[in-house]
Design goal:
It is built from three helices and 48 strands. It is mainly beta. A hairpin with a 4-residue loop joins strand 14 and strand 15. The radius of gyration is 24 Å and the shape is globular. The two termini are about 40 Å apart.
Length: about 550
């Protein structure tokens, strides 16, 4: 039996409309960011090369041909092409022509009668007549193709209902695997994957196009699209926490997933194995259950009919901002067996899950069980399921949960299934939670049993109406540098069931937040790994800008 959870209510704090893109380039019209790559253990992290949200009221830096282009107000400022009588294009920026991802919001306004009309996002543009595109066509299709001086060439398409007056988020990944592969997708809809046998070469500019259609465009960003491979060994553990500046500080792999333990030195996922792209449940299930390392790129939303097992040595990454899983989620771990009380040789290990959308699961979104270890769950968007969003239980350890946006869901994250799981959980459940955005998730943020130390730092909590961190059943929780806004009971070790131990330090409590209810001593996380603390006063802005999908360049 699970220990019941108490229900509380508070008066909601007032909310204001936030533009996510105001955090990119500080709201400037054109931000051309130096392509400085953040290295992680010697490999490259994705970096923003160019972005524009038109909030300065102009389109300086954009070259255009045909049509009627202007910056206008549509709630916010947008770049609009107002004529339905032209083959119009506009491009801007510069960067690498290979391995890039561009995304933007696009709103078709009107299509000229007669068919063959389209609104497009452009990428890898060498000029106004040389680029790849992902287009929404008036024929209710999403199309991926390219333009050369010879004209437009469609490379692939899929059915998708296009409604004028509706905003869509388009993403175009070019030369993702250095093999001429192009992937175009629309958030909430299909993706189209094609291979170009004669890839374009260009300066990496991005752009917009309208083919006998009028449209508005906004919030465009171009990132390099390098495959991220985290460190193969743990960082030094001699140094304790250091205090960072205004951030973001910890965008790579940090925490327990880096530790050398249980025969696994750090978490590398599918590094060293093949890279594949999947867009159907059958394809995903095939590769997710294979033996050996694989990097699996998920293109579009995949509907699963049951919790899907993932085998060891896998990296699973969503493309763009609209790729992931619905219906059911992912299961990491061998079948439950109460007789197993120490890590078995066949425990699932070395898994990376990044940049994925999880919604509408009939069970957990992500379940980690039965001594699974060295798991990194990073930069995902999770909401609206039946049970837990990220549950970790039955002896699983050496897990990092970072930069996720969880929202509009009650039972958020469970660490330790039951007060009776003493034999499997004692001395295990070593998990790091950092830079997550716990957004209107009433309870289990996380709800902890037995684990020590459970390190919870630099997370942003907002309107968690029951409890933030609940540390019970002899767990030891280190809760530091977090930002709690309107959280009735932010941190407690007397929530329900047997008491735990918690240390709360250097946290910020605002609005209707209560005070920590903590006692006891807890092991220091710095005994296992090094980490950097952001200023807790800056955590709200850092995390709300950096958590979730679309922030790592895929």
């Amino acid at each position: 039996m699970h220990v019941p959870f108490r229900r509380r209510t508070t008066t909601p704090a007032s909310t204001t409309r936030r533009r996510a893109w105001s955090a990119v380039a500080g709201g400037s019209a054109v931000a051309l960011v130096t392509a400085l790559l953040v290295t992680i253990g010697g490999t490259a992290e994705a970096a923003v090369l160019f972005s524009d949200n038109f909030e300065d009221g102009n389109a300086n830096g954009w070259s255009k041909t045909n049509g009627s282009w202007s910056v206008v107000s549509d709630v916010s400022y947008v770049y609009r092409q107002g004529s339905t009588g032209a083959d119009a294009r506009a491009i801007a920026g510069a960067g690498s022509g290979n391995g890039t991802s561009v995304s933007a919001r696009v709103k078709p306004i009107a299509f000229r009668s007669g068919g063959g009309n389209a609104v497009s996002l452009l990428s890898t543009a060498g000029s106004l007549t040389s680029y790849y595109y992902v287009a929404l066509r008036s024929s209710n299709t999403i199309e991926v193709g390219k333009r050369t001086t010879s004209g437009l060439t469609a490379l692939g398409s899929a059915s998708f209902t296009v409604t004028p007056g509706t905003w869509y988020t388009l993403t175009l990944n070019t030369n993702l695997l250095a093999s001429g592969q192009i992937i175009g997708s629309v958030a909430g809809g299909p993706s189209v994957t094609v291979t170009d046998s004669s890839p374009l070469t260009g300066t990496g500019k991005v752009g917009f196009g309208t083919l006998y259609a009028s449209a508005s465009f906004d919030d465009v960003t171009l990132s390099n699209n390098l495959i991220i491979e985290p460190p193969t060994s743990a960082p030094p553990t001699t140094a304790g926490p250091t205090t960072g500046g205004p951030g973001p500080a910890q965008t790579g792999l940090v925490g327990f997933a880096t530790v050398n333990a249980w025969g696994q030195n750090g978490t590398t996922g599918g590094a060293g194995g093949p890279s594949v792209t999947v867009s159907t449940a059958a394809q995903f299930i095939d590769y997710a259950t294979r033996t050996g390392p694989y990097t699996i790129f998920v293109s579009g939303m995949i509907s699963l009919s049951a919790m899907q097992n993932v085998s060891s040595d896998k990296t699973i990454i969503g493309l763009g901002t609209g790729s992931g899983f619905t219906g059911y989620g992912l299961n990491i771990g061998i079948p439950i067996d109460d007789a197993i009380t120490s890590p078995p040789a066949n425990a699932v290990k070395n898994i990376i899950i990044r940049n994925l959308v999880f919604t509408g699961s009939g069970d957990d979104a992500i379940n980690v069980q039965m001594f699974s270890h060295h798991i990194w769950i990073d930069h995902n968007d999770l909401c609206c399921g039946y049970d837990g969003l990220i549950d970790i239980k039955r002896g699983s350890s050496y897990v990092t949960v970072s930069w996720n946006h969880t929202h509009n869901h009650s039972k958020n994250m469970l660490l330790g299934r039951d007060d009776g799981d003493t034999a499997q959980d004692t001395g295990r459940l070593k998990v790091t939670y950092h830079h997550n955005w716990f957004n209107r998730t009433p309870q289990r943020n996380p709800r902890v049993r037995f684990g020590e130390p459970v390190h919870i730092f630099n997370n942003y909590y907002v309107y968690n109406t029951d409890v933030g961190v609940a540390c019970q059943a002899n767990a030891g929780c280190l809760v530091e540098g977090n930002y709690f806004a309107d959280v009735e009971e932010p941190v407690t070790n007397s929530y329900a069931g047997p008491a735990g131990r918690c240390v709360a330090r250097n946290n910020v409590f605002v609005g209707e937040s209560g005070s920590p209810d903590c006692s006891g001593t807890v092991q220091e996380a710095s005994g296992y790994y090094s980490y950097t603390l952001d200023d807790p006063n800056a955590v709200k802005s850092i995390v709300s800008a950096g958590a979730g999908v679309g922030k790592i360049g895929y």
